[in-house]
Write a structure and sequence with these properties.
- The chain has about 800 residues and is α+β, with helices and mostly antiparallel strands.
- It is built from 18 helices and 33 strands.
- The longest helix is centred in the middle third of the chain and has 19 residues, at about 290-310.
Length: about 800
């Protein structure tokens, strides 16, 4: 099976033939798949050294590094500094814990972190050029540390506690790595204890959890990696065979194949976790997680494929080729100049260690690792992507922070004659996870919704405690301020006034309402292919209050028309947040109808008859119908621990913010809003558009939201029910774009409820006939124009397209 766009004649096995080039050690002599030994899945004694060397290369960069090279030397120095920090407090003579700050016997993360520190120090011990390299006293200290953990914390004699992930995955991965790094010093008895301990918690890649659910998504790949590296350490070929088969689910366990690119809808006892055909990634049942578990799946899988490439256990599942779709659809639209859109990062946004473009680094490392395994057009595209991603992140230099092996591999990619792709300019929607990304040359915009199909936010393990409104229509604007969502944004931003959201004023309890679906099905929209034109919307049904409302975003190139109607609540004050910006310059100018507002911290005001606003470094906002807004400048102080009890610190951090919102009043009934957002626009352009708006409203009722672009007559509409917007009528819920284009009219439509079997549109324009149509879309003439019928069964909110022409 190949994905559209695959180079003709390039079969999956041909692609995998190129996988032997993965990594510096990929050409090591290994058993071939055709041998009797491979077929029987025997011990891998003869090949264990080669496989272990391959994994060691991933951890250390391999032999022969030029330590006089400035970038190599800097990477080696980083390893040494990390080890110096990690080794502090290490004392195998202690009774209560290997490290003084990791003594808990109820918090499982203390076990994982202890092993991670040992692996960090072992890496420095194994890398030439570090202060720790080859230090015999340090080696003995590390061995004693492993012995302490096996005796006191980890193995068959110890009952697991707290989080299964730490026992089956986190601790096991780190211990496997430490064992590979220290292999020649372990001795047979200690090596046996290590492999037995890991096998005790993670015996098989088809691991069943206590709740009788087989591990899926990222967890399945992590577990497969644990088993694979442990098999290399113990010389157990049968386990490698099971790993290979588990990745494709060939044993028929009923779980979703983590490599199946097609819809991973839940089977019996399945969860629907993994990648979907539109690039969405779900983990923990219904949480969007491309920038969390999704990136970890890609990263871990790239390492595992590297380990197995060219061996008897190489993965030859034809669907493996669909990794290219994960990169193109699941990551590229969501990586913005080194940052991953926070709406798909789950609870990781509440971890201080994951800010500063760290998540994007993981994605880049994975694609760098995968690139040699995909020859031809896909390899060139991956090369172009990696070059672009690295070059456009001027906030965080990838080459100055990545690991040694990735540094070496990335420099090979950069040296390729293939040019960088260039900035992504596109409008992409992910209907399987209720998210949209609008990418323009000067800015990017992310819209976060939820529905009956998708959870609002995740807060488990005492993390992400203030994520209440992350999917209540949150709009994240990415500009030239590349550090905006880094540098302590998430603990300091007012979580009750996230930009774009409509909320009832007030502060819920920590983690209130997390892992909740909406009572509404309507969330999604339509994108016109090959353009940056899209209609998006959601029917808001707020958790914890009676607040409800209809919200639309019509993304029309450099202008976003923001529309709200039917906003109502039985109690409480309802607000819609126009903007909430962390200011890189605390004195950034705010212009209100051309007049400068005060820049003093603590300034607040009621702003009447607002026709336009401009925030320096952010952009403009046009209100064709003058409104009253509230403005507030403040220095917000918080700690990471307020939003993350597990990983947060108690150190206060302070950041300046400017917040602008529209107050709908107490217990509103059928309130609404309408404004044009012009990201990156100048004050002059904003003022010009306030006098001659480029987009005009057509309908703002509880039946339909619609706008028309003045330059070309494009009509964009979200139908909440059956209704009419000028020349366009829908028989029920739908999202529609109608764009005149010379002698043709292009129509794009979808069913955002994902429940309808068909959508029927009447377009009151006579003399039109069909030029082209997607399967399932038809058009017939009527007395007033043309009737369009689209079969939306099983489309899951995807856009369908039709091109008409005048006779």
């Amino acid at each position: 099976m190949t994905k559209p766009g695959t180079t003709p004649g390039t079969a999956r096995r041909t692609v995998l033939a190129g996988a032997a080039a993965l990594g510096a050690a990929a050409a090591l002599p290994l058993a071939t798949a055709g041998t009797a030994r491979a077929a029987a899945g025997p011990a891998v004694t003869d090949d264990a050294t080669a496989l272990r060397t391959r994994w060691l290369t991933l951890l250390t960069g391999g032999p022969g590094l030029d330590l006089t090279d400035p970038q190599i030397a800097a990477a080696v120095a980083r390893i040494g500094r990390a080890a110096t920090t990690a080794v502090k407090g290490l004392d195998p003579t202690r009774a209560d814990g290997l490290f003084p700050d990791l003594t808990s016997t109820t918090v499982s993360n203390h076990v994982t972190t202890s092993f991670k520190r040992l692996a960090t120090v072992a890496t420095a011990w194994a890398v030439p050029g570090t202060p720790q390299y080859g230090d015999t006293a340090l080696r003995d200290l590390l061995l004693a540390g492993i012995d302490w953990m096996l005796t006191h914390r980890y193995g068959s004699a110890h009952t697991r506690f707290d989080n299964d992930w730490d026992w089956e995955i986190g601790s096991a991965l780190a211990l496997d790595d430490a064992a590979v790094l220290l292999y020649d010093a372990l001795g047979t008895e200690r090596l046996g204890r290590i492999t037995a301990a890991v096998r005790h918690y993670t015996p098989d890649p088809n691991l069943w959890r206590a709740d009788r659910q087989i591990a899926t998504g990222a967890n399945r790949v992590w577990i497969s990696t644990v088993v694979a590296v442990n098999a290399v350490l113990s010389g157990t070929g049968d386990d490698l065979t099971r790993v290979r088969d588990a990745l494709s689910d060939v044993e028929g366990s009923g779980a979703n194949s983590v490599l199946a690119f097609n819809d991973v809808s839940a089977a019996a006892e399945g969860t629907g976790e993994g990648f979907y055909s539109d690039g969405s990634f779900l983990q923990h049942y219904k949480h969007p997680y491309n920038g969390g578990y999704g990136k970890e799946l890609l990263n871990t899988l790239s390492r595992l494929l590297n380990l197995l490439a060219g061996t008897a256990w190489a993965v030859t599942d034809p669907d493996l080729d669909n990794i290219r779709g994960w990169v193109d659809d699941g990551f590229d639209p969501l990586l913005v100049r080194g940052d991953v859109m926070a709406s798909v990062c789950g609870r990781e946004i509440a971890r201080p260690s994951k800010q500063g473009h760290v998540s994007a680094q993981t994605v880049i490392e994975a694609v760098v690792r995968l690139t040699p395994g995909f020859p031809g057009e896909t390899g060139d595209r991956f090369t172009a992507l990696v070059k672009q991603w690295i070059a456009e992140d001027t906030y965080r230099d990838f080459l100055a922070v990545t690991d040694l092996a990735s540094l070496v591999a990335a420099r090979r990619v950069i040296a390729s004659p293939v040019p960088a792709r260039g900035p992504l300019v596109a409008h992409r929607q992910h209907p399987r996870m209720d998210k949209a990304a609008h990418r323009r040359p000067s800015f990017s915009l992310g819209i976060s919704a939820y529905s009956s199909r998708i959870y609002n936010y995740e807060s488990i393990q005492n993390e992400n405690l203030h994520g209440w409104h992350l999917s209540d229509g949150m709009v994240l604007l990415y500009t030239d301020d590349l550090g905006h969502y880094s540098e302590d944004y998430w603990p300091t931003v007012d979580p009750a006034r996230l930009p774009g959201t409509t909320v009832v004023a007030g502060r819920p309890a920590d983690a209130a309402g997390q892992r909740t679906t909406s009572t509404s099905d309507w969330a999604g929209g339509t994108a016109l292919p090959g353009t940056t034109l899209g209609a998006y919307g959601m029917e808001l049904r707020a958790y914890g209050s009676s607040l409800r409302g209809l919200k639309s975003w019509f993304c029309l190139d450099d202008v976003i028309a923001c529309v709200g109607s039917g906003i109502a609540a039985d109690a409480g004050t309802a607000e819609t947040v126009v903007e909430n910006r962390k200011l890189s310059d605390p004195a950034a100018a705010l212009l209100v109808n051309g007049a400068a507002a005060p820049t003093d911290t603590g300034w607040s005001a009621r702003l009447d008859q607002v026709r336009w606003l401009h925030v320096a470094g952010t952009g403009g906002y046009v209100f064709p119908e003058p409104v009253t807004l509230n403005g507030l400048r403040e220095e917000r102080t918080a700690t990471w621990r307020e939003i993350n009890l597990k990983y947060g610190t108690d150190t206060p951090v302070t950041r300046p913010y400017l917040t602008l919102w529209q107050d709908h009043g107490s217990a509103p009934d059928d309130a609404g809003y309408y404004w044009l957002q012009a990201p990156a626009a100048s004050p002059e352009r904003t003022e010009q558009w306030s006098s001659a708006p480029p987009v005009k409203p057509v309908a703002r009722s509880t039946a339909v939201h619609a706008v028309r672009r003045c330059s070309d007559g494009l009509l964009a509409a979200n139908f909440w029910t059956a209704g009419t917007a000028q020349e366009l009528t829908s028989d029920g819920p739908a999202s529609v774009l109608v764009r005149p284009d010379g002698k043709t009219v292009k129509v794009s439509l979808s069913d955002p409820t994902q429940l309808r079997s068909s959508v029927v549109l009447d377009l009151a324009r006579r003399g039109l006939s069909v030029v082209s149509a997607d399967p399932g879309v038809a058009a017939v003439p009527t007395g007033d124009g043309v009737r369009i019928t689209a079969d939306t069964t099983g489309r899951h909110g995807a856009t369908l397209n039709l091109t008409l022409k005048w006779s």
